[in-house]
Amino acid sequence: MSSVGSHQEQLSQSDPSPSPNSCSSFELLDMDAGSLYEPVSPHWFYCKIIDSKETWIPFNSEDSQQLEDAYGSGKDCNGRVVPTDGGRYDVHLGERMRYAVYWDELASEVRRCTWFYKGDKDNKYVPYSESFSQVLEETYMLAVTLDEWKKKLESPNREIIILHNPKLMVHYQPVAGSDEWGSTPTEQGRPRTVKRGVENISVDIHCVNDFRSVSLNLLQTHFKKAQENQQIGRVEFLPVNWHSPLHSTGVDVDLQRITLPSINRLRHFTNDTILDVFFYNSPTYCQTIVDTVASEMNRIYTLFLQRNPDFKGGVSIAGHSLGSLILFDILTNQKDSLGDIDSEKDAPNIVMDQGDTLTLEEDLEKLQLSEFFSIFEKEKVDKEALALCTDKDLQEMGIPLGPRKKILNYIRTRKKSTGINRPILQPASGVNISNIPKELEFCNKTDSTGNGDYLDVGIGQVSVKYPRLIYKPEIFFAFGSPIGMFLTVRGLKRIDPNYKFPTCKGFFNIYHPFDPVAYRIEPMVVPGVEFEPMLIPHHKGRKRMHLELREGLTRMSMDLKNNLLGSLRMAWKSFTRAPYPALQASETAEETEAESESSSEKLSDVNTEEASVAVKEVPPINVGMLNGGQRIDYVLQEKPIESFNEYLFALQSHLCYWESEDTVLLVLKEIYQTQGIFLDQPLQ
Question: Are 518 and 648 within 8 A, CB to CB?
Fold first, then answer.
């Protein structure tokens, strides 16, 4: 989501005057003596459990200053809520807790931090509690004011902190194994550094180098002019969680019991991916999945608008792996709000079991055959089952010849007029895997009256009623997507070039060349032409050096090969030419000259063709309207280390998109182009 206003994170210095809660008890001190003392500048942190270990992460400077302003405002902190992280998290100041806004996540502790000590293993600074930090600050102030050092303090956890001087302050952990009578903590073990304030501690960091943080960095480097002119705001990324609710059924535990212990990482990847595929192809779970995804998308959008009432930007969506297929199916089955009602009345609808609003009773009434509805109801025949009925089936149900012909003709006419030539759904599994017709296509069709376009979505998917989104996405980005494979397995041969999503204008299929789950889309639109996908530029411009080197060596080897073969060909012909009689000398000379010219012309032609292949640009390829006439398939450039062994990096490549600067830059570029904003400098 493109949000309002830019998000610039600058290190803000807090007010040097003491806050009412930190130094009020020292107001009667001699100000001349205390002139060397300066109150510490606090910074706010939150705690996350990472690998079963507490990790304290700093808020960015802007959020920390907002929290400090709210804390020092003099108002009661209880019930005070401060939005942070671009509004994705709320901090309840009185509780000192941080809550996720748009998704479920364990609440994390928040702390106003002033004093730190270095951790045991990772050398990261750990903040003391707020109460003990205040004790340390008071002791430090007295030491500075009176110039009396070597102060020793004991923390509530029986840790010893010694303030030797302003530059040397150490922390000793309590020694384990004291006798049963107990003992006084002593200065034993390796001392740890104690730090006052956040100076020289990086506070503008993020927990993970995720999509959002990468995008903020790229805004500074590639859209700096637009930001300075306040033409754009940042892009907000909000996750849609559908995976966790689905896996709360206990199937994961059952699957883990039968999983072999070897190649653990690969088996975990297989279980996680293949299980979702089985879920999505199950009639039981498929409806649950699409309902969960669509409802979450609508809920998050509604909540975002409630929290950002002035938002006027656009919304784009992105799906990774199976998530991209789910979004593809949902978008395929959306309806444009304009003229929906008229098209439903005037035209036969798209697919009987996917969005057909007319009931079987209404269909029979339309055919003036309402009296036979009770027969179908008794035999438990719905619209889908009726579409599978033959003349013999209807006869066995007691339907007379005339009505039988009407019903069969109506079904046949509907299929012909809507382009539905789809596989028959088998009652046992809900998915047909053997009777998929060869001529099945993904097409935009027009009804017999010529009114309106509608889509044949009869692509072998299980019978699902797809929910409607309450907004129209600008662009759909698919990362590492198996859409092409699924459509092919469902029996789809090609996508009509005129087809486009009913409510979404753009579609980008982005993948890493070694991603084992990714498939292309463009060959399904233009099946008779072989062409390469679009190469995504490196975010710093040009191709990666190893790719340019590889292409340069390929071109050089081709040139050497062509020149060498040409020279060898001429030498071989002169060596194998038979001698001619003297009286045929003139004729021989003419033939030799003609042959030489012919061979040189052929060689020249070959070189010219090869040169033209190397120099001539690839002509524009019509890949249809799925992405508004633009290219659809975009491939990332592999890193130099990945090119050594593509199998070794296959699994990693499927997860690379969220940390890929090249992917994020393409997403930002396409989103901002919808607003007429372009990169500061075009990438080559």
Answer: no
Distance CA 47, CA 596 (A): 82
Whether 198 and 43 have beta carbons less than 8 Å apart is answered as: yes
Largest CA distance in the chain: 130
Length of the chain: 684
Domain boundaries, the chain: 43-175+188-196, 247-334+466-534+642-675, 360-416, 539-567
- Hey, what are 66's tokens? 């907002």
For residue 160, give the 3-state DSSP assignment.
Answer: strand
Buried b (16+ CB within 10 A) or exposed e, 230-244: eebbbbbbbebebee
Q: Which two three-digit tokens encode residue 385?
A: 């089952």
Strands 317-320 and 441-442: unpaired
Whole-number pLDDT of residue 526 = 92
pLDDT at 347: 31
Q: What is the pLDDT of residues 47-87, one digit of tens each?
A: 998 878 888 999 988 999 999 999 988 788 888 999 999 89
Contacts of 321 (CB under 8 A, 6+ apart): 273, 479, 480, 481, 482, 517, 654
What CATH architecture applies to the domain 360-416? Answer: Orthogonal Bundle (1.10)
pTM of model > 0.70: no
Answer whether 310's CB lies under 8 Å from 4's CB: yes
Beta strand 168-172 with 192-196 is antiparallel
| SS3 at position 134 | helix
354, amino acid identity: Q
- Find out whether 533 and 621 touch, Cβ atoms under 8 Å: no
pLDDT tens sequence across 568-588: 666 555 545 544 444 433 344
β-strand partners of 535: 635
- Which helix (DSSP H) or strand (DSSP E) does residue 418 occupy? helix 401-418
Summarised one tens digit per residue, pLDDT across range 439-487 is 334 444 444 334 333 334 444 556 788 999 999 999 999 999 999 999 9
As a dihedral over the C-alpha atoms of residue 64, residue 70, residue 74, residue 80, rounded to 10 degrees, the angle is -130
**For 358-376, b where at least 16 C-beta lie within 10 A, e where not — what string?**
eebeebbeeeebeebbeeb
Which residues of the chain, if any, have pLDDT below 50? 2-34, 206-209, 338-356, 418-459, 546-547, 575, 578-616
Pick from 395, 360, 350, 356: nearest CA to 381: 360
Rounded CA gap, 681 and 221, in Å?
10
CA neighbor of 473 nearest in space, from 332, 355, 341, 339: 332
Q: How far apart are the first and last CA of the chain?
A: 27
Q: How far is CA 647 from the centre of its chain?
A: 23
Residue 508 contacts residue 634 (beta carbons within 8 Å)? yes
Residues noted as catalytic: 321
- C-alpha to C-alpha distance for 2 and 613, rounded to whole angstroms: 42
CA 45 to chain centre: 28
